[in-house]
Amino acid sequence: MCGIAGFWKNDQNDIHAFRDILKDMSAQLYHRGPDGYGFHVDERAGLGMGHARLSIIDLETGEQPLLSHDKEQVLTVNGEFYDYKRIRTALRLEGFQFACKSDSEIALPLYKKYGLDFVEHLRGEFAISLYDQSRQRLVLVRDRFGIKPLFYHINKGNVYYGSEIKALLAHPDVPSSFDNRSILHQLMHTTAPGTSLFKDIYAVKPGHMLILERHGNQLDVKEHCYWDMDFPEKDEREHKSEAHYIQSVREELSEAVFHRLEADVPVGCYLSGGIDSCSMLGLASGMQQSPVKAFTISFDHKAYDESAIAKEMADRVGADQEQISLKADDLYGESYIKTLWHAERAFYNTLGVAKYKMSQRVNECGYRVVVTGEGSDELFGGYPAFKRDMLLHGHEGASAEELESYRKLMDESNKLFKGAILAENQVSHPALEEVCGFTPSWIQPWMQTLDIASPLLHDDILEDLRGYDPIQEIATSFDTRQLNNRHVLDKAQYTWIKTMLECQILNWGGDRVDMANSMESRPAFLDHHVAEAAKKIPPHMRIKGNVEKWVLREAMKNVLPETLYKREKFAFMAPPGHTENKKKAALDLLLDSYLNEDKVKEIGIFDPKRLSSFIRTYKADTDPVSLVRKDALINHLLGLHILHDLFVSKAASIIA
Question: Binding of L-glutamine: at which residues (predicted)?
Fold first, then answer.
């Protein structure tokens, strides 16, 4: 697990500064790779490739960049390739040679053998840059779900890339300014696939590769989707027994966890009170000889705290549990700012800050790797919004009375989160109705947030955005071939996977806050073999009656405490700022520093009067649903101003 950065230039005006610039870019990724830097510079080709290393596999000889045996290809990798020993052995038998024991090196002979199809033979979470001198080709690749980040900027035939945007901004030719459309998306929390907050800086999309080839002075750029979460069409669905799907999930998930325990350093587990992380711990405990180290977050608000259930699970399997207790001072202040610097986007809840603090503790305990539960809800139908869509549009065989009772139970158990995770009333959008046949419930609360967020923008930005519809932008980004003739639940899961999984769960809920403290997280559920098994599960088994993730529950039944096996999905969130006076006071300090009138006028994103009025109404509000929504928006407003200070006003060095 590392960080990569580089450039491929057509104009070579700064050729003598190549190495120094590359060092500056890589230095911005020190937190991703504190164990050393590696560089490859080819001045004739205008190429610079940098690597910041976090040593996890092949501690002695795994330095990058890696060169092919004939020196024609150069490779840098951020991430892990699993099952690499078997693949390496097979390639050796075919005559390929290896210079080290790193898992990353298998990509080079696979590319030699399969060309651009090499990525289909890789299993894991990764971001790759591969330069092929013989073809004058640079290939940027991102794993199937976008677990590992990778950004790029192209200007006048010059290419710049990096694991994080801050690495690109360290190059003097890459501009640093916000994109007005992205500002709007940040306020509604849902970004369009392939975009970033920054103007002309893009993300390589999950499951995609960017193929860049030079033909003289011309740069040819192609985007290729090599994998997608293609749920089977209705008339192509399997019709097998419940036992078949339960056993399939057991086998694939067990293998995925087994591979993710492979490391030359100790491997721990994140542990909350949910089925997902408890399943990871249960499986890992069966595979490891010594007690597994488990890390749990505890909040100082009973309604949001799951540590008691987590402890029950840890005790059940004899894990060595480390509990991190977090209060207002931990969730705001300096840690809040640092989390934004690492995430490079705004967040709606301080759960990201909590996870930043947890990874900090993991690092202090001497661990560099943990297995995590992200991706389970996406694959197995776990989120309340998915259940709502199923109950409204997709349930077969249940009476109207049963469905109504299910909806009431779900609304009651999720009342804490109405306004952010669930909308209190149904809203729709014609663009989503056109591509999905309905408006997925997961996006509805953010559509309602957008209604109160847009008017807060400065008039100049509103004028620039005239005629732009962010919901339509999101709707048209979906591949309709993956939506046509699919079940309602398939559509809800697919649209979430293409948006919120990457921009939220795997960003400020995953890689960015884990790698902030040089700690690699491995989400075993997002193994593509597990995903292939999950997508085949019929919708009425993913959510059976009122039970979400039914097949997963049954598959993991014997490793889970009974309390958890029977428990309805409960969203994992930090207590919002309005829930307690100490948090209100800590949040007020940030608001006074970053959203004061002078700052608002200076930055020019928001209208000072309208923003001031909104903050007053937020502080005076007493309606719980309204407060949840406004608290989410306050975090986005605050986040944009802090990010502007850090990256546009060039104060990022205070973090680095």
Answer: 103
- Helix 444-453 crosses helix 180-187 at what angle (to 10 degrees)? 120
**Binding-site annotation: residue ranges for ATP:** 297
Please give the model's pTM, rounded to 2 decimal places. Answer: 0.95
CA dist., res. 568 & res. 430, Å (int) = 32
Residue 382 in 3-state DSSP? coil
Which own/partner pairs from 597-603 qualify as long-range (CB within 8 Å, at least 24 positions apart)? 599/641, 600/641, 603/641, 603/644
Q: Domain 234-379+520-566 sits in which CATH superfamily?
A: HUPs (3.40.50.620)
The domain locations on the chain are: 2-225, 234-379+520-566
Architecture of domain 2-225: 4-Layer Sandwich (3.60)
Task: Indicate the SS3 state at residue 366.
Answer: coil
Nearest CA to 104 out of 55, 164, 167, 35 is that of 55
- Per-position b or e across 614-635, b if 16+ CB within 10 A of its CB: bbeebeeeeeebbbbbbbbbbb
Closest CA to 551 of 570, 523, 530: 530
- 2 catalytic per annotation: yes
**How far is the C-alpha of 374 from the C-alpha of 147, rounded, in Å?**
10
Strand pairing report for 124-132 and 73-81: antiparallel
> Given this model, what pLDDT does residue 652 score?
45
How do beta strands 158-162 and 151-155 pair? antiparallel
What does the alpha-carbon distance between residue 17 and residue 263 come to, in Å, rounded to a whole number? 37
pLDDT in tens, 286-324: 998 889 999 999 998 888 878 889 999 999 999 999 999
The two tokens of residue 169 are 């901004």
- Give percent of the chain above pLDDT 70: 94
CA–CA separation, 215 and 204 (whole Å): 22
Cα gap 372→145, rounded to integer Å:
15
Give the HSE-up count for residue 315: Cα atoms under 13 Å, Cβ half-sphere. Answer: 8
* Selection from 574, 567, 576 nearest residue 276 by Cα: 567
In sequence order, what are the beta bridge partners of 321? 294
Contact present, 197 and 183 (Cβ < 8 Å): yes
Residues 6+ apart with CB under 8 A from 156: 10, 11
Task: Cite the annotated binding site for L-glutamine by residue number.
Answer: 103
How far apart (Å, rounded) are the C-alpha atoms in residues 421 and 434?
A: 23
| Given the residues 2, 269, 278, 503, the one annotated as active site | 2
CA distances from 98 to 113, 259, 264, 584 (A): 14, 21, 19, 57
Mean pLDDT on 429-436: 98
The answer to whether the 2-225 and 234-379+520-566 domains have the same CATH topology is no
Cβ neighbours of 602 (radius 10 Å):
12
- Coil, strand, or helix at residue 41? strand
Binding positions are: 103, 297
